[in-house]
Amino acid sequence: MLPWGPGFTGLSTTSLRTPTAFPKLFRDGLDRLALSFHHGGGRRDEGVDRLLLRRVEHLVGDGGLVTGVEHDLDHLALQPMVVGVIVGISVVGRYLLPAVLGYCANRRQMDAFGVVLFLAVIAAAWAVDHVGISMTLGAFLLGMLLSASDFRYQIEATVAPYKATLMGLFFIAVGMSIDVGALVRDWEALLVHVPVVLAVKGAVLIGLVLALGIAPSAAIRTGFYLSQVGEFAFVLLGAAAVAGLLSAGGHTLAMLVVAVSMILNPLMVKAGDRLASRFQTMPASVGEEPAADLERHVVVIGYDEVGQLIDLMLERANIPHIAFDRDINVVRQGKRSGRNVHFGDMYSFATQEAAGLGEAAAVYVTSRDMDHAKGLAVTLHRLYPHLDVYVRVRTLGDQDELVAKGVRHAGTGYIESTLVRGSMLLKGLGVSEDDVSQLVNELQRNDYALIRAGYAEFGKNSNADHASPGVRSKHNEF
Questions:
Q1: Max CA distance (Å), the chain
Q2: Can you state the angle between helices 248-263 and 232-242, rounded to 10 degrees?
Q3: Interior CA angle at 194 toward 137 and 270, to 5°?
Q4: Contact, 298 vs 360, CB < 8 A?
Q5: From residue 268, how far is each of 206, 224, 264, 346, 429 by CA, in Å?
Q6: 4-12 vs 46-61: helix axis angle to the nearest 10?
Q7: Which of 21-25, 58-62, 447-451 has maximum average pLDDT?
Q8: pLDDT in tens, 419-438
Q9: Element (H, E) at 253
Q10: Residue of 256, 124, 152, 142 lying closest to 194 (CA atoms)
């Protein structure tokens, strides 16, 4: 016969709980059971008996068993609430929040755009925390849903000023929580765990990429680049430690494994490049680069009629390109037509990064707001000196102003279009094509010298004759 003391000791450490009405009955039952063992001749250990009964009476007396039952029942009751909160966040993030953000974007209320965004994140975090889930998961779920919306790049631009600061604080807090002394004490364990993590994760990623039919060189780079443990592991490990799933020693070791794997990432990148170069295959045609790579591409800023025409010309010429506009309705119309156009303000550094201006070959700026177009052209020229900035302006004065500031590819839109239409008019009136071409060449020569002279003379006569307010000397409207 097994001794009954250890059996009750095991019982006292399980998650079994008793209802509120049973504390006294439970104690009486223990006494009867102990008495029956005594009269039945079972072997007993008086010290173990007393320790066991004190343990059980403590659990029952202080409400531990009752509290445990209530906690379990509450946990079961919260499960439908958890599902409801997740479904609610999904609906809000997929439909309601984009509609509200679109309302703000349509009215160019970008301050309200940011306030609504942050309030939504706080609400999502509060909702999941209310049902017992990590606040981080709520914010992550909402962010994942918003990443598929038309506001992705503008959201990145709004969050960017806070992202760097919060990320720095996060890593400082993580670094302060790591026991540096454990790095010396547990170096043998790290020599085993870190290579295993890097090897397993890298092998799995390489296998998945190869299974998708991607080239071996790209698969190797993917596996080596992403072999380290991500920073989100710090959050998961902290939550696991708080929940009691990890001991203090296990938590410290796991944090060290994550940190060391991230420190080794630059070395893994170099090793991946060297290994991938052995499997590199030559492209089918020299100089042909896919648009998805966003290298040596063109960024079209402004998707009005001119921007759409530039986009069409680039597509027909097989030149990689991407377009941005500040009007969400224009962006949605473009996406419905299958165009690669996105919502975002190009004054934002985050949007500039999303557009890949650092690797772009040129940018074409067009806008009905001429002050905005000129200011953006000058800004991009100063931030990216290597970039060829093309901008459409209205007047020769605007063109000269931008050229003086270094924007060499500024040009008027109305002069060339007027010359084309004028050529068609003259040909329709019987003027020969050679004479029309000669006339157009003369007007274009020396940066429209004849046209400038004509405008200057008209302006001088207009001022001398005290022209009426309805006459415009600069001819801005064509």
A1: 130
A2: 180
A3: 95
A4: yes
A5: 14, 6, 6, 34, 72
A6: 20
A7: 447-451
A8: 888 888 888 888 898 888 88
A9: helix 248-263
A10: 256
Which residues lie below 8 Å from residue 450, measured CB to CB, with a gap of 6+? 442, 443
User: How far, in Å, CA of 272 to CA of 202, rounded?
Assistant: 10
Kindly give, in sequence order, each residue whose CB lies less than 8 Å from that of residue 458, ignoring residues fewer than 6 positions away. Answer: 473
Q: pLDDT of 374-406, one tens digit each?
A: 889 988 988 898 899 999 888 888 888 888 888
**DSSP state at residue 390:** E
Give the span between the Cα atoms of 456 and 449, in whole angstroms: 10
Domains of the chain: 4-62 (no CATH), 180-277 (no CATH), 292-412 (3.40.50.720)
For residues 374 and 312, the answer to whether their CB atoms sit within 8 Å is no
Q: Is 50 exposed, middle or buried (0-12, 13-18, 19+ CB in 10 A)?
A: exposed
- pTM, entire model: 0.48
Token digits of residue 211: 């299974």
- CA dist list (Å): 320 to 120, 216, 302: 36, 24, 17
SS3 at position 321: strand
Find all residues with CB under 8 Å of 359, minimum gap 6, and list them: 294, 295, 296, 297
